Amino acid sequence: MTLAETKVHENLNTGLSGWPLLIVSAAIGGVAGVLSVGVARWLTRHGGLDSPEKHGISSIRACRLGGVLIASYMLFTIIYHYMLNAELIFSGVSLWVLGLSTGFFAIGLFEDIRGILSARLRLVLMLGAVGILLGLNDDLLIKPVGLPMFDWLLTSLWLAVPITLLCLAFLPNAFNAADGANGLVAGISLIILIALADADLGALNLLLNIVAVSCVIFLAYNLVTAKVYLGDGGAYFLGALVGGAMITASNASELPVWYLLSLIFYPTADFLWSIARRIYGGQSPLAADELHLHNLVYGRIRHLTGWPIAANTITGLGIALIFAGVPYFIWWMNADSAFELAWEWLYLLQSLAYLSLWLHLRPKIAREGLEGRDRS
Length: 376
Fold this sequence. Notes:
Blueprint: H1 3-16, H2 19-44, E1 49-50, E2 62-63, H3 67-85, H4 93-114, H5 119-136, H6 148-154, H7 157-178, H8 184-197, H9 204-225, H10 231-251, H11 257-263, H12 265-280, H13 293-305, H14 308-333, H15 343-368
Antiparallel strand pairs: 1-2
Helix pairs in contact: 1-2, 2-3, 2-9, 3-9, 3-10, 4-5, 4-10, 5-7, 7-10, 7-12, 8-9, 8-10, 8-14, 11-15, 12-15, 13-14, 13-15
């Protein structure tokens, strides 16, 4: 490690263990929050640094182990409550969702630390993990969702299983691909978790609330310093947890399916659009490029402001608030009303907004050479 890299490494460790973050973590997450920050600090001493060329649109070297904050906060919260009450705080479907998320986190964390797993191998491991889960318990098997064109597939177990496999493996990868701007994935996840907590999902609501707190702690550091991002582990963990929770909400008919889809619109639409672009261009669908919408938005904002870090944060939070915050705000405004919104129309508007913005920015960014770097 060069002298400059050593200095950056020291700065990261100092920042991650700084008093402001510890105070925020203690205020928001208590003992578990402080301990999770300590674990993340320890891990950053043993690797996890990426160059700017390899991560998102960041212009500085950053640590890719931010997901450890979220996972370790979960662990310490479980331990803390067990010490107080001598019993586990999760059971039933919440335990299965947490188990799935933890398995995905382990796959991502190994890749973050070692960097030797190909995208295809990770996908195979994810499909295997979901397959094992469904073999042990079918609570997360997708049931008819109220869409005639789709429900006839889900009535057959032989079709429902592979569809569930693909959905639960697709969403974590979509979250990982979107992890390219400060606060983007953590912000979207936080909004979704708050939205899902509005539904009566029983013991699962406690899990959603705890992970929401961990997202707030992560955002507090990520947005201020821009030196830590979720990495594969954090993105996979949040993607799997959100996927499991959404299937649970859909199966319980607690929330309209198009509303749920509108909440996860950005990561899923951006991932599908990226795959389509790459296939059309004769590339591997899993190849990396710099043409995600958040790259284009960042390039334009950076050009207008000249502030790279601020542009990064504005991009991440802006996309999270527009594509996930707006649906939740509309739901919240009409929660006590008899007004029934046709959520499929909102999803259509999101699609038109995404494509219009991408098609508008792409030629501008190409002319100015301002694409933001991206690793996904």
